[in-house]
Each structure stands twice: as structure tokens, then as C-alpha cells.
């Protein structure tokens, strides 16, 4: 094989590898964009009709007190938002977070099942008591520096 045909063959092989890599990235990017999840409220979810069954969704609300049933990495509960309820079945790789408790704000990611139960594969939660607003008449917690003042001393010339 002469040098010209050997270098031509290398260019052709390199071009084929580059084109294959670009095609792979385009196809995997298109597949990932279909997995995009849309945020919606419980009310919006209930009004979506058949579109709700085919989309990946994120739904937030407060966990209804007494509705949590845990079984290892699985949990079922009810989300509340503005008087509307959504039953949720979580089945993830990890158990629900420690902050997942009654009245906690939770964000469930997954899809709506035909039975009306939201099938979550990811779950995030905030601690309800930590972020609750102060009750009227409650005094704010004292910080270590509470009650101290600082004085600036300027030396005399």
C-alpha cells in the first residue's frame, strides 16, 4: 500500500469515528430531553387529562399527617395543596429522607399512574418545624452575641 492511500484510509476511518460519535451524542441527547420533568401543582396535574400519564412530572405539596406508610425504600403517602389531595407511591433506590415527616413540604418526581396514584422515583423533603413561621407572641431565639454591644475606641493623638 502506498503512502497516499494509507493516509486517505486514516482520514476516512477518523471521519467515520467522528460522525458516529456525533450521531451517538445527538441520539442520546434527544432521548434525555424526553425525560425532562415538568413542574405542576396538584390542581394542574388533575386537570391535565391524558397528558399527565405520558409525562415525567414534579409535584410539590405538604405531607398529609398520618398518611405515611414506610416499607424499606418504599413509602406511600398523600400530598396536600390548597385543599387538593394526591396519593403518592414512592419506590426509589434509597429510603425517604429523614426530613420526610407529617406536614413536611415534599417534592415528588415521577409520573401519574392510570389509577390516579403518582408513581414517584425521587423524593425531596424539608423539615416542617424548621421552616415554620414564628407564632404570634413567640420570642426569637437568642444568638450567642445577643445583648452585647461593640464600642469603637479611637486612640487620642
Characterization of this structure:
- The chain crosses the membrane at residues 6-27.
- It holds the Pfam family CcmE.
- Residues 140-151 have a biased composition (Low complexity).
- GO terms for molecular function: heme binding.
- The chain has 157 residues and is an alpha+beta fold.
- It has helices spanning 3-34, 42-46, 51-54, and strands at residues 37-40, 56-63, 69-71, 74-81, 84-91, 105-112, 118-126.
- The protein has a domain at 37-125: OB fold (Dihydrolipoamide Acetyltransferase, E2P), CATH 2.40.50.140.
- Helices cover 26% and strands 31% of the residues.
- A 5-stranded mixed beta barrel has the order 2-4-5-7-6.
- The longest helix is centred in the first third of the chain and has 32 residues, at 3-34.
- It is elongated, with a radius of gyration of 28 Å.
- Mean pLDDT is 76; it is low at 141-151.
Radius of gyration, Cα only, in angstroms? 28 Å
Structural class: alpha+beta
CATH superfamily of the domain at 37-125: Nucleic acid-binding proteins
Percent helix range: 25-40%
Roughly how many Å apart are the termini?
Answer: 93 Å
Q: So what's the CATH class of the domain at 37-125? A: Mainly Beta
- Biggest beta-sheet profile: 5 strands, mixed, barrel
Residue share in β-strands: 25-35%
Q: If helices are DSSP runs of H or I spanning 4 or more residues, what is the number of helices?
A: 3
Sheet with most strands: strand arrangement: 2-4-5-7-6
How would you sum up the global shape?
A: elongated
Would you tell me the overall average pLDDT? 76
Low-confidence parts, pLDDT < 50 over ≥5 residues? 141-151
CATH architecture of the domain at 37-125: Beta Barrel
Order of helices and strands: HEHHEEEEEE
Amino acid at each position: 500500500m502506498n503512502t497516499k492511500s494509507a493516509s486517505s484510509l486514516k482520514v476516512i476511518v477518523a471521519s467515520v469515528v467522528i460522525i458516529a460519535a456525533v450521531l451517538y451524542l445527538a441520539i442520546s441527547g434527544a432521548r434525555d430531553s424526553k425525560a425532562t420533568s415538568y413542574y405542576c401543582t396538584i390542581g394542574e396535574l388533575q386537570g391535565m387529562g391524558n397528558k399527565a400519564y405520558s409525562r415525567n412530572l414534579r409535584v410539590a405539596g405538604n405531607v398529609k399527617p398520618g398518611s405515611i406508610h414506610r416499607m424499606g425504600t418504599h413509602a406511600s403517602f398523600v400530598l396536600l395543596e390548597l385543599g387538593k389531595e394526591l396519593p403518592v407511591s414512592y419506590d426509589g433506590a434509597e429510603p425517604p429522607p429523614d426530613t420526610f415527616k407529617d406536614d413536611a413540604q415534599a417534592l415528588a418526581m415521577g409520573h401519574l399512574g392510570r389509577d390516579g396514584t403518582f408513581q414517584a422515583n425521587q423524593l425531596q423533603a424539608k423539615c416542617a418545624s424548621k421552616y415554620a413561621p414564628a407564632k404570634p407572641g413567640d420570642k426569637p431565639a437568642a444568638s450567642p452575641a445577643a445583648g452585647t454591644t461593640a464600642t469603637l475606641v479611637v486612640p487620642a493623638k
